[in-house]
From TrEMBL, chain A:
Transmembrane segments: none
One Pfam match: SCO1-SenC
Claim: Signal is one of the keywords in the record: yes
Domain Thioredoxin residues, every copy: 56-217
Species this chain originates from: Hymenobacter profundi
CDD domains for this protein: SCO
Signal peptide positions (record): 1-31
Keyword Kinase recorded: no
Alphabetic keyword roster: Signal
The protein's name in its UniProt record: SCO family protein
Alphabetical list of InterPro entries matching this protein: SCO1/SenC (IPR003782), Thioredoxin_domain (IPR013766)
Length: 234, 138
């Protein structure tokens, strides 16, 4: 089923390439996105088929992880089975960009909080300070009362930073800003097969609007894929 | 005739330079707010839920007016009550701002988003900053 999904995605790869550059201009193709799939973002590898058939393209996947959320519950890859999720990195005492980011993510959350297929995951990058009670307080202060809809999760420091790299949200170059200013305010959109399907600047309202528009595109693809998979079952 | 024209031109030039000066001065608070404050307190001073206190319509700005210069200079830690809601976030201090920049930020905040609170002179802010040894005399 994964291979099938990947092959289907190949057809729309050209549309996807534009978004890889993370330029604001890529939101101009929103008309295409109604009928197209979202790009696969990150490293990809072309693997020759052992049977001599067409080569397979294998995309980078999010590694296996084990986190704990503000309710003290485990959060793993299985938590997001058959769902799409949006992720970011923050810390509770962050005085700079986090409040702005979280208020933008809150805007996305408000749109999708009644859709159980869309889940939110914020990782703390300061696990030493952000204990479970701190995360719970933070979530409640943001107005998030159901931890299963928006997880504020912690894990050992190394785990979190490895994940930040996998989600490509650790740091980002902004060519528009003087001196190629870097920041860490990105959101990533992940599909049920652990692939990153969108990266959005969480400090930029237009980029966050693009995320809000692209979530349904991914949901539709997921529905179509699982329907096809079901139909194929004997 | 010619000297009248010259004087007129010189007067216009001075006026336009001054206007530039004034408008920059007036906007300084707004610009500094956008750079140093808005990502937490919001572009409209709205704050963020129960996490970051609002500035728009905040009783705290009136009640704690004299303490605000030091609050910006030294930052803020521990619970504070704003409009009946207890907030508890760390606000960083600002050694990177001059007394006059703090004055401009405060005057912007005290007069923006419907706030109609008393403004400050630079001298007053410097004096208030002495309380926390935070005046840089500029």
């Amino acid at each position: 089923m994964i291979r099938f999904a990947l092959r289907r995605a190949l057809g729309s790869l050209f549309i996807g390439l534009g978004s890889l550059t993370l330029l604001p201009a890529c939101s101009s193709s929103s008309a295409d996105q109604q009928t197209a799939q979202l790009p696969y973002i990150g490293e990809r590898e072309v693997v020759p088929s052992p049977t001599g058939g067409p080569a397979d393209t294998v995309y980078a996947t999010i590694p296996t992880f084990h986190l704990t959320d503000q309710a003290g519950q485990p959060v793993t890859n299985a938590t997001f089975k058959d769902k799409v999720y949006i992720t970011d990195f923050f810390f509770a005492t962050c005085p700079s960009i986090c409040p702005k980011m979280q208020s933008e993510l809150l805007r996305v959350y408000e749109k999708y909080k009644d859709n159980p297929r869309v889940v939110f995951l914020s990782h703390t990058i300061d696990p030493a300070h952000d204990s479970i009670p701190v995360l719970r307080d933070y979530a409640e202060r943001l107005g998030v009362t159901d931890a299963s809809r928006w997880h504020f999760a912690t894990a050992p420091h190394d785990t979190v930073f490895a994940l930040a790299r996998a989600y490509m949200t650790g740091a980002q170059v902004d060519k528009e800003a003087p001196g190629g200013f870097t920041h860490t305010g990105a959101f990533a959109l992940i599909d049920p097969n652990r692939h990153v399907r969108g990266i959005y600047d969480g400090l930029n309202k237009d980029e966050v609007d693009r995320l809000i528009k692209e979530i349904p595109v991914l949901l539709q693809e997921v529905s179509a894929t699982s329907a096809t998979a079901t139909a194929k079952q004997p | 005739m010619r000297s009248w024209w010259l004087r007129g031109a010189a007067g216009l030039a001075v006026a336009s330079v001054l206007a530039g000066c004034f408008s920059n001065r007036q906007n300084e608070g707004e610009k500094l707010y956008a750079t140093h404050c808005a990502s937490c307190h919001g572009e409209q001073g709205e704050g963020l839920r129960r996490l970051i206190p609002p500035l728009a319509g905040a009783d705290y700005l009136r009640q704690q007016r004299a303490a605000l210069p030091c609050l910006i200079r030294k930052g803020q830690q521990g619970p504070i009550l704003v409009n009946g809601v207890t907030f508890n976030q760390v606000m960083p201090g600002h050694d990177d701002l001059t007394d006059s920049q703090i004055t401009n930020i405060l005057n912007f905040v005290q007069q923006q988003w419907g706030n109609q609170n008393q403004t400050y002179t630079i001298r007053e802010v410097s004096e208030l900053l002495d309380a926390c040894h935070g005046s840089d005399g500029q």
